[in-house]
Amino acid sequence: MQEFELEGRDYIELNNLLKVVGLVSSGGLAKTLIADGLVIVDGEVELRKRCKIRDGQVVEFQNEAIRVIA
Q1: What is the pTM of this model?
Q2: Spatial separation of the C-alpha atoms in residues 62 and 9, rounded to whole Å
């Protein structure tokens, strides 16, 4: 599991997180994959593209997990 540090922010939008950590090549692709139900947040499918991911949450996509930390 990799970690992503918020670096002074309260949250990061889900589509941006996938792009920033390198799991997708573009924000548009991230939005499509989220809408298709392929991204899991805290154990549940998340369909909101701009869902606010905060400290302690875990995002899963294609057998990769990212823990967000403050």
Answers
A1: 0.93
A2: 26
Structure tokens, 66: 């990212």
For the stretch 20-39, pLDDT in tens is 999 999 999 999 999 999 99
Give the span between the Cα atoms of 32 and 69, in whole angstroms.
25
Q: How many domains does the chain have?
A: 1
Specify the CATH number for the domain of residue 13: 3.10.290.10
Tens digits of residue pLDDT in 5-25: 999 999 999 999 999 999 999
> For 14-19, which contacts have Cβ atoms below 8 Å and span 24 or more sequence positions?
14/39, 14/41, 14/46, 14/48, 14/49, 14/50, 14/51, 14/52, 14/53, 14/59, 15/49, 15/50, 17/53, 17/59, 17/66, 17/68, 18/59, 18/61
